[in-house]
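Posting for a labmate who doesn't have an account.
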Amino acid sequence: ENIYGSNYADIHLTTKEDLMFYIDFFKSKFLGVCLDTGHSVILKQDPVKLFEEIKDHIVALHLHTTVENVDLHAIPYTVSYCESIDWDKLYRQIRSSNYSGPLNFELMPPDNLSEEAKKAYYLFAYETAKSIVDGEI
């Protein structure tokens, strides 16, 4: 997984070159990359570009949106005031690629939500994911 270290520092598991080093070194059909879109944003990278560069090696996707220096784990499109991911382009890339792994929304609802609001939050996440899979987004 493209991951960061303490204080969101680069630990050399973040770039295409970092990730492909391990793919090329081990040359194993059992090794792949988990692309985490939020981690890309935190590390000031473009997850759309990273997906395109390593799409043949991606075996899992952690899709969530965030802002720099905070790993929000929010539903895509829900921080539109500062959104930095071109979700429409990423979804087109996913659908047009050979990717067949899990489409995982990595979510963490805000702490101050009631149980009813959390249910609504997760229902919205489900409907968003379904729209992606069905090609409506």
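Reply:
Got it, the structure tokens are right above this. Residues 40 and 47 are 6 Å apart (CA to CA).
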